[in-house]
Amino acid sequence: MRPSESPSTTMSTQLKEFQEHLLKSKKIVALVGAGLSVSSGLPTFRGSQGLWKNFNMIDLATPDAFYIDPGLVWQFYSWRRYTALKAKPNKGHYALAKLSQMGKSPQSDLTYITITQNVDGLSSRSGHCKENLYEIHGSLFDLKCTSFMCNFVDHNNFKQPLTKALADTEEEFDPSHNRKRSLDEQEVSISPQFNPVKTLSEKELPQCPVCKDGSLLRPGVVWFGESLPLSLITKVDNFIESEGSPVDLILVIGTSGTVYPANSYVDRVKLKGGKVAIFNTDIENDIVVGKVKDTWGFKGDAAELLPLALKPLIGEI
Ligand code: APR
Ligand code: ZN
Fold first, then answer.
1. Which of 60, 106, 179, 229 is 20 to 30 A from 188, comparing alpha carbons?
2. The Deacetylase sirtuin-type domain covers which part of the protein (predicted)?
């Protein structure tokens, strides 16, 4: 930023440059993380308000955790399903949904995909086209059988609670029910607090309807230590690496970029000459002021900034 330039001038200069490139772009990717759903009321994972601040990921989001205490893990995921179902998609989700529809339309020469690390289902509930939405970490609303012999998967199961025994655990996990807040905290949204919950037997948890031996169903999300679904990753790789021309623009929305392979996509797009636009509440100043080559940074709530930045292409949201 030049000494005479105010932050709002910088923002409008950046926005103008970005929008010129946006309108010229024929191939666009959005890489989405938890920050997109913050204004819908869902927590992120890292940072002072993040889920992993109060919850231990090793105890709740690994295959070992499920093996040791499936009742505990199911209560955590039942609570996350409940919270995601109560949340509504925001304008950021709707903006990407619009882009996805343009990316599919025969009248448009734009090709587009959203790669989301979010499992909250808000993108698909916002009307995003199925064909160009890649939920690489799975979905809270998919259920999979745990038996190696069985490939039962139940997609888009929105039943809540999934079993009678899981019914009251949602409220136990709800931070507003069981955490005393100090006066200071009442003003800010707080990260959820993990509280001791009841012990559940396997019989009280979701069971596979196909397996005769009552194998457990598990949440259809990718846990720490697990591989991402190969077919999906191959499709994303093909979109980025081949399938005609290189990607012109990657929108990096509300993600800390700490998890592979999501964090590799930006460099891969850049290597092939594509440009990057970051939408995040926390961005290095050099990026915000336009000092980093081929990268724009829009600092703030993605739900507000995305519709504004994409408006020349998608219209009013
Ligand atoms: N608008 C835009 N960005 C925001 C907002 C907001 N309103 N609020 C927070 N952010 C940003 C934060 O600054 C941070 O960079 O969102 C990012 C969230 O980062 P993480 O909590 O690390 O979430 P994410 O990047 O999605 O995590 C990736 O890690 O634990 C795993 O499986 C989990 O899918 C998740 C993956
Ligand atoms: Zn089964």
1. 60
2. 8-316
Q: What pLDDT digit, counting tens, does each position of 42-94 carry?
A: 988 887 667 766 677 777 899 999 999 999 899 889 989 999 999 999 999 99
Q: Strands 275-280, 27-32: parallel, antiparallel or unpaired by DSSP?
A: unpaired
Domains of the chain, residue spans: 1-42+88-137+227-317, 46-86+139-221
Ligand closest in space to the Cα of 254: 1
Query: Helix, strand or coil for residue 133?
Result: strand
- Lateral strand order in the sheet of 27-32: 133-135, 111-116, 27-32, 249-253, 275-280, 295-299
> Whose C-alpha lies nearest to ligand 1, atom 4?
35
137 catalytically annotated: yes
Nearest ligand (C-alpha, residue 282):
1
Query: Is 129 a known ligand-binding residue?
Result: no
pTM comes to: 0.91
Class of domain 1-42+88-137+227-317: alpha beta
**pLDDT score for 229:** 92
